[in-house]
Specification:
The chain is of the alpha/beta class. About 30% of the residues lie in helices and about 25% in strands. A hairpin with a 5-residue loop joins strand 3 (about 85) and strand 4 (about 90-95). The structure holds alpha-D-galactopyranose (GLA).
Length: about 400
């Protein structure tokens, strides 16, 4: 058996060599990235196109000063609008007014703080904000990104005409790997071509499962131009059903970046948003202004017990295990055999919600320790079920450990 396997491996290497390709070797470059869901900050949700060197550096400082780095946030990602044109060699040009020292200087600064640097581009001819896209320049851009010290690329899907999503993303992954630098690939295709079915295979580390999030609790709404649709937290949540089996270490479903602290929801709702993203093993990419956070917002984003659920080494995505009208129970299997549980009240009034052990995959008679991850309190040993009163639009989040 061993001999057959090693013969096969030798044959594969030989074929690769003869073909002049080293895609296999290149893929090793990005192996082992994002073994837990990426954590960081991104400019889009709060700042849109209003990005600049000063703001990004200030935000990187704030990641440190606010304790976000200590809580696990590491990527500082510039979204759309850093780029303005291509030069006569076809190289991408950063906005010289907004980034007067160029992108490498920004990357160097971020790295000097022990953080990692992310940028954004698009698989099509233009980005969603109409800036130059990556189409036809994948390898050229990848070399440029590597030279700037880029660690994370979010690759969008605007202006892609008849392009095939799977091969477009495979192409940029191959280009990134050929640069020799390990770069996380964030596929931003909005779920249209079901990227959970092929994202891992093409070397994506995370893939958006939906259209854009908006800083809102409720469902879907049309954009001002009449196109469909922006998603509130609950609309995004409902689009994650059926997807957990596609997530795991190195390859995650991405229900979009966090809106915590951007002002459109109250703190109860932001706690729910954050807890649910953690149960979903979602990338935790903050999208608020970290330079002047209220203590309430800071405490949500840096709750290490909730973050530990998101970052659990086994990499299971949680799922909804019980529904009673507006009341839901979500459960995530943890590495130590325990469960993280979110009791979610979507309704307009406080309600009691129970998580039954059978719904968590435990025998009813099992005695298990319950700990409240927002109160930071052990609630003792319980059998059969755990019940709590949950405020309107709120959650109670616990771990249950046999
Ligand atoms: C798309 C993406 C967003 C953001 C914008 C930038 O809408 O889904 O997350 O990157 O483009 O233009």
């Amino acid at each position: 058996m061993k001999t057959i396997r090693s013969l096969f491996a030798t044959a594969c290497l030989a074929v690769g060599f003869l073909a002049g390709g080293n895609a296999q070797d290149n893929a090793v470059v990005s192996a082992g990235l994002a073994l837990t869901p990426p954590m960081g900050w991104n400019s889009w949700n709060k700042f849109g196109c209003n990005v600049s060197e000063d703001m990004i550096k200030g935000m990187a400082d704030a990641v440190l000063k606010s304790g976000m780095k200590d809580a696990g946030y590491v990527y500082v990602n510039i979204d759309d609008c850093w780029q303005v044109s291509r030069d006569d060699k076809g190289d991408i040009v950063a906005d010289p007014q907004r980034f007067p020292h160029g992108m490498k200087a920004v990357g160097d600064y971020i790295h000097s703080l022990g953080l990692k640097f992310g940028v954004y581009s698009d698989a099509g001819s233009k980005t969603c904000a109409g800036r130059p896209g990556g189409l036809g320049h994948e390898y050229q851009d990848a070399i440029q990104y590597a030279a700037w010290g880029v660690d994370y690329l979010k690759y969008d899907w605007c202006h892609t005409s008849t392009q095939d999503a799977q091969s477009s993303y495979a192409n940029i992954r191959a280009a990134l790997d050929a640069s020799g630098r390990p770069i996380v690939l964030s596929i931003c295709e909005w779920g249209t071509a079901k990227p959970w079915l092929w994202g891992k295979q093409v070397g994506g580390n995370l893939w958006r499962t939906t259209g854009d999030i908006q800083d809102r609790w409720g469902g879907q709404q049309k954009w001002p131009d009449g196109s469909c649709c922006s998603n509130g937290v609950l609309a995004i949540l409902d689009q994650q059903l059926g997807l957990p089996s596609y997530a795991g270490p190195g390859h995650w479903n991405d229900p979009d970046m966090l809106e915590v602290g951007n002002g459109g929801m109250n703190d109860t709702e932001y706690r729910s948003h954050f807890s649910l993203w953690a149960i979903l093993a979602a990338p935790l990419i903050a999208g608020n202004d970290l330079r002047n956070m209220r203590p309430g917002i800071h405490d949500i984003l840096t709750n290490k017990e909730v973050i530990a659920v998101d970052q659990d080494a086994a990499g299971h995505e949680g799922e909804r295990v019980a529904t009673h009208g507006d009341l839901e129970v979500w459960s995530k299997q943890l590495d130590d055999g325990g469960r993280a549980v979110v009791l979610l009240n979507r309704g307009g009034a406080e309600q009691e919600i129970a998580a039954r052990w059978e719904d968590l995959g435990y025998p009813a008679g099992l005695s298990a320790s319950v700990r409240d991850l927002w109160e930071h309190k052990d609630l003792g040993k319980v059998s059969g079920k755990f019940s709590a009163r949950v405020p309107s639009h709120g959650v109670v989040m616990v771990t249950v450990k046999p």
